[in-house]
Amino acid sequence: MTIDVKTHRPYRVIIEPGALDRVGEIALAGKKPGTKAMLISETNVYPLYGERVKAALEKAGFPVSTFIFPAGEEHKQIGTVCDMYKALAQAGFTRTDFIVTLGGGVTGDMGGFTAATFLRGMDFMQVPTTLVSQADASVGGKTGVDLPFGKNLVGAFHQPMAVVTDPQALSTLPQHFFNDGLGEVIKHGCIADRALFEALEQGGALEDMAGMVGRSIAIKRDFVEADTRDTGKRMILNFGHTCGHALEKLHGFQGLSHGEAVGIGMVMACRVGENMGVTQPGTAERVKAVLRRYHMPVEDKFTKEDIVAATALDKKSDGNTLRFILLPKIGESVIHPMDRDELLRAL
Ligand SMILES: NC(=O)c1ccc[n+]([C@@H]2O[C@H](COP(=O)([O-])OP(=O)(O)OC[C@H]3O[C@@H](n4cnc5c(N)ncnc54)[C@H](O)[C@@H]3O)[C@@H](O)[C@H]2O)c1
Questions:
Q1: Whose CA is nearest to atom 2 of ligand 1?
Q2: Could you give the CA distance from residue 76 to residue 68 in angstroms, rounded to a whole number?
Q3: CA dihedral 272, 133, 5, 287 (to 10 degrees)
Q4: 91 φ, ψ to 5°?
């Protein structure tokens, strides 16, 4: 399956079992043989898939250097990016060469940021290996790193030259990280694809992983094309994130994963919408049932007062007005500005 993304720089997302072996051939669409490739990956993913991707690039005629960093969000930091710059400079990379990021969202975000900034910008290709990155992060061009005082605080919009997605790579992904991505897939069903939501509700979605990833990415693509730099409609993708981010913060970013927090946030957003008369009654219960089906939490120990207070520092907020996302019904979404008092009353 191929999905075209028409941002100012158009690119293709190729979703296909075994696609890892086609990375080199796909790169030939934009790069001449002999162009240097820097394969950026991390310590969990490279031993599983690195040599296959390296061999595929070499077979297509690209000389490959590798940069492997320690796996984990704690390494998504400027220091690692500086090490990437050093590896690129030492290997004599120029602006016409390219980077290939092989790994989850951490690798894609950070390798993409390096590509956006080294020599004022070079091409990169995303090869996502987690459900978060295949179904969400690899499309949209958001790249970046964390700072000691906040996640993703430094970054750039930089679209990849192509995304090569191999759903078979998900077979080695630990369940916890798989569920994290499922939270985003359920979100995409909620905001824009009733049929995807129903397939998740009935349990059939996981039988066709390439199809599920493809539908999820197509939804993200639609919002990204409509609003590449995230100043309007793309905010709909934040459904569940206002309360979800607040919960992550209250948990000190430990214990509760991002996808789990967003799942609880989606239930809360549906409840808010139902209490305000915007959301079809029963929607929160349907979202809860889907989350439970995939063993994800549907509620949390923190009080609504705690949660609303924690939204105060949300970087997506605008003064005292939260751009809250509500679902009129499954598959439809709206941006609904409201202040914190209103949110507290509706929760
Ligand atoms: N750019 C965007 O639009 C966007 C969107 C959502 C999330 N993100 C970012 O993505 C990150 C989270 O993504 P993630 O969950 O992919 O994180 P991750 O890259 O840390 O991967 C999660 C874990 O899975 C391991 N792993 C990766 N692929 C594997 C495989 N195929 N088999 C076995 N293990 C594998 C990794 O080593 C890691 O331990 C966050 O930093 C977040 O900010 C970015």
A1: 137
A2: 13
A3: -30
A4: -90, 5
The first and second tokens of residue 242, run together, are 């206002």
Per residue in 71-80, pLDDT (tens digit) is 999 999 999 9
Mean pLDDT estimate for the chain? 94
Q: Where are the alpha helices (DSSP H) in the chain?
A: 23-27, 51-59, 78-90, 105-117, 131-132, 175-192, 194-202, 209-226, 241-250, 258-276, 283-293, 304-310, 340-346
Please count the other Cβ atoms lying within 10 Å of the Cβ belonging to residue 321.
Answer: 12
DSSP 171-233: GGS-HHHHHHHHHHHHHHHHHH-HHHHHHHHHTGGGGSHHHHHHHHHHHHHHHHHH-TTSSSG
Q: Is 31 exposed, middle or buried (0-12, 13-18, 19+ CB in 10 A)?
A: buried
Query: In DSSP terms, which residues pair with 39 in a beta bridge?
Result: 66, 100
Residues contacting ligand 1 via CB (< 6 Å): 42, 44-45, 48, 71-73, 76, 103-107, 109, 129-130, 132-133, 136-137, 140, 142, 151-152, 169, 172-173, 177, 180
Residue 47, token pair as written in the block = 């031993």
Residue 107 Cα, ligand 1 centroid: separation in angstroms? 7
Q: In the prediction, which pLDDT does 232 show?
A: 84
Residue 313 has pLDDT above 70, yes or no: no
Give nearest CA residue, ligand 1 atom 4.
137
Predicted TM-score (pTM) of the model is 0.94
What 3-state DSSP class applies to 278? coil
User: Which residue segments constitute the domains of the chain, with CATH numbers given?
Assistant: 2-172 (3.40.50.1970), 179-346 (1.20.1090.10)
